Amino acid sequence: MVFFTSDLHLGHRNIIQLCNRPFSSIDEMDQRFIEKWNEKVTDADTVYILGDLMFRNGKPPEEYLRQLRGKKHLIIGNHDRAWIKKCDLSFWFESTSNLLYTTDGKHQLTLCHYPMMSWPHMVRCYMVHGHIHTNTDAKYWPLIQKNPLMLNAGVDINNFEPVTFDEMVENNNRHKPISNRDEEKGERLNQRQIEKKEIPHES
Hints:
16% strand, disordered C terminus, four-stranded mixed sheet, four-stranded parallel sheet, 8 strands, alpha/beta
């Protein structure tokens, strides 16, 4: 099987608070992520990691990598720059790249840590990304939200585990409507503010 994941931030203590993850310590988070990974992935499976696998980790990278099953492909993220210099990537990964065009056998895929607004064959090819976690505040979010071909592989919207393509689609579809409701609430609030400004003040 083929799995996708991103933005685990193994070893990164502050990510628990920054992303409101339901863990009391970095050791608990790391252990749970590894357990959930290995509950789904076998050594015969392929896993595409779309960046930020670790960050500010006190443990050697190999201590994490040797525990993670599967044939791993790393798409390098902004927080991978330090740890990838400390281990033999060719030993642990089938491939490492900044950008990868591939297929899972059914779908054409462009894989990048960062969400791209344009990519090859974008009318039929999926843009799978990470980086943004659950953030919906960026100005480009409406473009991602409205495009069914843009899929976030990040663990924060994918139950903290590697996911199949179909699972990733389902989780993204569940995440995007939540943002739609937030957007509608914001529009109603803005409308009330406009109406309030239009009410003439009594002198």
